[in-house]
Amino acid sequence: MEHKNTWETYNSKQLKEVDVFAKEYIDFLNNGKTERECIDTIVNEIEKAGYKELNTLIKNKTALKCGDKVYSVWMNKSIVMFRIGEKDMAEGLNILGAHIDSPRLDVKQNPLYEDGGFAYLDTHYYGGVKKYQWVTIPLAIHGVVVKKDGTTIEVNVGENEDDPVFFVSDLLIHLAQEQLEKKASKVIEGEALDIIIGNKPLVIDKKDKKDKKADDDESKENSGKDAVKSGILSILKESYDIEEEDFISAELEVVPAGSAREAGFDRSMILAYGQDDRVCAFSSLKAMLEVEKTKRTACCILVDKEEIGSVGATGMQSKFFENAVAEVMNLTGEYSELNLRRCLSKSCMLSSDVSSAYDPGFASSFDKKNVAYLGGGMVFNKFTGSRGKSGSNDANAEYLAHIRDIFEKEKINFQTAELGKVDLGGGGTIAYILALYGMNVIDSGVAVLNMHAPWEATSKADVYETKRGYVAFLKNADL
Ligand code: MN
Ligand code: MN
Asked: 237: CA distance to ligand 1 center in Å?
């Protein structure tokens, strides 16, 4: 079965829309390099579109009716949105789900040290990374430091033109003979991913300003052992009012510095950090904002912690989604334990995540007939998992038939795929978790080249086509 190239299906009006959409997507990526930043960006946008915060509605006992828009954020890292449909919620929702966490280096809780005249932050990688890809590239630090009194200090350094950046060093080629003999997984090991954040002893800055006596005192304190570390601490105190011990209650994420870019002479692609899975999060969000009245209630879940197994209070395995559905049903006047269960079991879901794109440079890793192509349209994975489909949600044929029918009627270009060759590895998504309610769930999303690398590539056409697919799903799915 041949797949169409999505670009070839567009007329000139659509080609313009693709570019406009890609520009918005690039902004979204630049504004949201962590899950917290994504939540801020999303809440800003949906509040402008009339979405109301769930807890406020609960407090005011506001009754919800068809057409109302409501959202709930959990711990600043996960969000669920609802647009109430014409039918009772107990008849099921149409759900879009994606994740907003991405692989990165997290700063440890006791991170700051000095060695060989450099100040370092010790990191612990998050999600699946090829560690050797993270050395010698400019890195930025994004996140929060929460002080004991509850004040939150936001940190975002390395993105503006005149911001400093940070980096992990690598051994010069001239001495790398032994290193280059190592397995790629050992070339750079986890504990070697500490970032260099300074090289200047504090005393240099102070010398001119002080009289002789004070200078001597200062020197005693700030030269010699850990003078560079002291210098960094003094900058942190001055710029952010944080002390060394405040790292204990910080969440600082080290990500590639720099903006998302158009790629190729034809500007057909986007090269950016964190497209897994902000590409599906962005297109799901846009579809939610685009749909007008729907028969079934439209829902969109954008969650944290997918890259490490959907664990914790903000991961998909948390009850926050189910609780939010219960609260919303309470406000539509429908809530009962039985209605909640009916609602969840009769729902349809597109569990979206990136799919691996065929890479001609590594052709032998893919089954050419069952892989996604960049530019090939929205991707459906009937199943994911590893080896014999282990850990997978395997969507029902009846559900796939329903989706095919909708997509063909709405002329959405789509392709079906597996991650790669059967025995080579695999991966999971959030699909299996929602499937536990008994609802119909299928893995879908956008093809990505160099998935999990500091810079990942997608096709602008795929991003746009996937949003079209989500709109068609929200309007028409009913099984
Ligand atoms: Mn993903
Ligand atoms: Mn991933």
From this structure: 37
Starting from the CA of residue 429, give the closest ligand.
1
pTM of whole model > 0.90? yes
| Band of residue 391 on the pLDDT scale cut at 50, 70, 90 | confident
Instruction: Identify any residues that bridge with 447 across adjacent strands, giving them in sequence order.
Output: 355
Proximal ligand: closest to the CA of 100: 1
Measure 98 CA to ligand 1 centroid, in angstroms: 8
* Residue range 306-337, pLDDT digits in tens: 999 999 999 999 999 999 999 999 999 999 99
How far apart CA 454 and CA 129 sit, in angstroms, is 9
Cα 50 to averaged position of ligand 1 atoms, centre (Å)? 29
Per residue in 255-293, pLDDT (tens digit) is 999 999 999 999 999 999 999 999 999 999 999 999 998
Q: Following CA atoms 463, 467, 470, 471 in sequence, which dihedral angle do they give, to the nearest 10 degrees?
A: -160
Q: Which ligand number lies closest to the CA of residue 446?
A: 1
Rounded to the nearest angstrom, the distance between the alpha carbon of 199 and the centre of ligand 1 is: 37
Q: For 68-173, where are the E strands, in sequence order?
A: 69-74, 78-83, 93-99, 104-115, 118-126, 139-146, 152-157
For Cα atoms 250, 254, 256, give the angle at the middle one, nearest 5 degrees.
Answer: 155
Ligand with smallest separation from the Cα of 430: 1
Q: Say whether 368 sits in a helix, a strand or coil.
A: helix
